[in-house]
Amino acid sequence: MTKVAEKPRPGAIAQDDLVVGSSLFKDAMRRFLRNRLAVVCLVITVLSGVICMIPHLPGMPTSITEAHIITNHGQNNLGPSSEHWFGTDELGRDLFARVVYGGGISFQVAFLGTMVSLIIGVTYGAFAGYLGGRIDNLMMRFVDILYGLPFMFVVILIMTVVKKETNSMIPIFMALGLVQWLTMARIARGQVLSLREQEFVTAARTIGASTPRIIFLHIIPNLLGPIIVYTTLTIPGTMLQESFLSFLGLGIREPHCSWGSLASQGIQAVSPIASYWWQVLFPCGALALTLFSLNFVGDGLRDALDPKGRQ
Amino acid sequence: MTKAVKSKSSSEVILKVKDLNMHFPVTAGILFRREVGAVRAVNGVSFKLHKGEVLGLVGESGCGKSTTARAILQLYNPTSGSVKYKHGENWTELAGRSAGGMRPLRKNLQMIFQDPYASLNPRMTVGSIIGEPLKIYNLAEGDALRRRVQDLMNEVGLDPRFIKRYPHEFSGGQRQRIGIARALALDPDVIFCDEPVSALDVSIQAQIINLLTRLRRERQLSYVFIAHDLSVVRHISDRVAVMYLGKIVEIAREKDLYENPRHPYTKALLSAIPVPDPDIEAKRERIILTGDVPSPSVERKGCDFASRCPSVEEQCYSEIPELRRMETAHYAACHLYPDGAIMQV
Known about the structure:
The structure holds two protein chains of two kinds. Chain A is 67% helix and 0% strand. The longest helix of chain A is centred in the middle third of the chain and has 37 residues. Chain A is elongated. Chain A is mainly α. Chain A has a single domain, classed as MetI-like fold (Orthogonal Bundle). Chain A has eleven helices and no strands. Chain B is α/β, with parallel strands linked by helices. In chain B, the strands form two sheets. In chain B, strands 6-7-8-3-9-10-12-11 form an eight-stranded mixed sheet, sandwiched between helices. In chain B, strands 2-1-4-5 form a four-stranded antiparallel sheet. Chain B starts with 12 loop residues before the first strand and ends in a 13-residue tail after the last strand.
């Protein structure tokens, strides 16, 4: 940054002579990268996400995409070995393949469920906040009413109503997204309410900016920080809820599996005679490690995007 | 600070404000709001602004100075009143225009804001902040836009190489210069300066005032200069209007107002300016006002200042005083001076 010290020269300025500033986003990235724990957790998350998604990618050979449903006759309930890294379940299916496949389902549900809540929540909240007045009042009272409904009741209702016809994962995305957009809407609305009173929004109006221009250029970019943080903290929450629902038998059904349903099966296999510990430990361990990493990434992002909120 | 060289403003009027009212409704109720009253932030303001003139607008906090500016610029929808702007040869009414209807006129009427930290979008580079008005009106693009922005940066004393920097990388004074450059981008006739220096250090205040004075001379700008610092207003203004509780109580040429104030409120306000000589300061008699500013949400039959006025009379509680002529271009709204002609806009 030695260029800063030079005196300004009038006249033409070469492009490469410009002093490039660092945006708030770049600053945040730098702060995030300095947080070693968050970076390590980000690497773990990305790595486990990539590995878990391999069986779900299109164009993969069936030896990979269907490894989780191949039953090996006579090899049921085997402990971890060099052949079956995580052991096998009671039907002789390779647990490693099942954990990887189930992880892919858990990741998809978590990301898509969060995206559903992000899109509905931010749009709804930004709308309510920007319009203000009576419309805002009515929209947010509606959110309050939905908040008042017991979460499990709503989810079970959606799952049982929609699930009869389809066997896809769409009902569970919908169920989780529809419940989680409420908090997202409140956060977005709160941010918009304070942003639209900022002087730079008034300044944009005095230079003749249109309402869409104000929303997309002035309000949304300033909204992103808190929304990104809340989104990264919502993903593990959604993943945990999906696992919880699957554990109760409401979520993913056979032949599909997720970390929650694998843990549920593992628990059921536990008996006074024999505890097949690997059937509980590996799915739960994978879930715990991912949730832990996602939470630390979220915390790291929050610290990076809002340095004042630290300590 | 040297005394600003005041260019003689022409007698041509370019902005006429008449009986401007800005009442904010006070509502109650949870779902079905009903109006239970109104805050009369601006309550019948009238004045004229000449081409190339600086009109100072002073008054204590909350008297409606900023609201007046925002209501004139239609950033709020004024409750009633008329704002006429001389657009070329024709007078154009601004009050009641929609956002779209105001757009072509916003080019000519610009604003500089009080808080240099809040008035710049933290996610945009300086170049895009200053260039935004040019983009909105399709006045320049690409390289031409960059050159225009850098010329503007030069004009307000910013290093044009900083075009790609972000507002948080500048000091308060520099940020205020960015705000000024943005206001100048559309080459306006009138700039409303909403306390442009009150958030800055004294030494930086002088620089910004000098910059505004130079720009005014070079570009023949008119300013409506809002401030609560009387010395700053005296330094830059040709005429000064004193506001109290949403009304102009006295308006006069700077020299007349400061040397021969008529309204008791103006007298009290001026006596609060400290004199930088300890001997005179010690002997000086100050007019101390008792009580607080009354509520702007109560409608009064008489003079708003009556409850605090040292020379209050019976009449003051029953009759609203009008702005009357004291001498040339000097008007005051007080029952002590009942003889002059009522001000016409």
